[in-house]
Amino acid sequence: MPNEASFAGARAALAMLHALGDASADDALCIFLLSGGASAMMELPLDEAISLDDTIAFHRALVHSGASIVEMNCVRKHFSAVKGGRLALAAGVAQTLSLLVSDVPPAHLDALGSGPTVGDTTTVAECREILARYGLMEKFPASVRRFFASVELPETPKPGELNSRGCKLVDSDDLAEAARCHAERLGFHAVIDNACDDWSYDAAANHLLKRLRELRRQHSRVCLISAGEVAVRVEVAGANVRGGRNQHFALYLATRLRADDGPVAVLSAGSDGVDGNSDAAGAIVDEHALDGDSLRESALRALAEFDSSTWLSGVGATVVTGPTGHNLRDLRILLADSDTLNAEFLEA
């Protein structure tokens, strides 16, 4: 979530750019370094009447909405004084170069950090549609509702309107490919499947588990890799909501594993080392994670209460790395061996 430092950082960046004054394109070059997390780390409402507390509530409602990162950042762009190309706009005619370490879908680099330094491909109309589809207006503070309800909601600068260039250094595709190469060196038949990027956590889990079972019919050792993010719509509120999309995904997938799936292990973790509001990066589960009726019942209750982290840490299934210093989205790895496969399973 944004904090006072987020506002201070945005104001300092804008002041630095405004200080360029009348510098020409030949006299000034601005280099922007962007990575995941920038949407919270630098923020300032376009409407100065919106307070920090209301800005935090706005961000929290977006994160809990179940919207994809591209959809959330479309809304953030139209809310912010520094996102959606407005930071680069403040540089005037100076040339700008953005170096990007991306935690957004590769085809949507203008969503990285809500696109402060590149032209925005989204529109006010798309923003309003997203707000309506996820029922967000009633979840926003009054000041934010008034802002988005205004008929004069300003459009963001578009590609071609900014003297701005971007260079992607690394993204989630590179992360998945590195995992694939390592898995092959370990003797696995490794496959990357990013088709479920931005799907809901349950649809993504069911898709990947089905794909893993299909691959096992043809290969003795399988590593299925999926990079990107899944969406979790938080339906409850309160202090007991603890975890993030990776732990929620892992716990749900554990409820879908069968005994004859084994031996199988599933990792879901954030490459930045942080999953939601927990201390964990993610979790690892296998086909024995829910052995016993009491464990299964408590796991289903934890899913319903969006308290996956407490449950998973209680059974030693969380992965705690601490902040890694980079952010290339999430990584899911499904490993399977054929030691216990039988003919009945192969025909299923």
Structural class: alpha/beta
Element-level helix/strand string: HEHHHHEHHEHEHEHEEHHEEH
What is the C-level CATH assignment of the largest domain? Alpha Beta
What is the average of the pLDDT values?
A: 92
Walkthrough of the structure:
The protein has 348 residues and is α/β, with parallel strands linked by helices. The chain folds into two domains: 4-170, Glycerate kinase, MOFRL-like N-terminal domain (Rossmann fold); 172-347, MOFRL domain (glycerate kinase, domain 1). The chain has 13 helices and nine strands. It has a six-stranded mixed β-sheet with strand order 4-5-9-6-7-8, sandwiched between helices. A three-stranded parallel β-sheet has the order 1-2-3. The radius of gyration is 22 Å and the shape is globular.
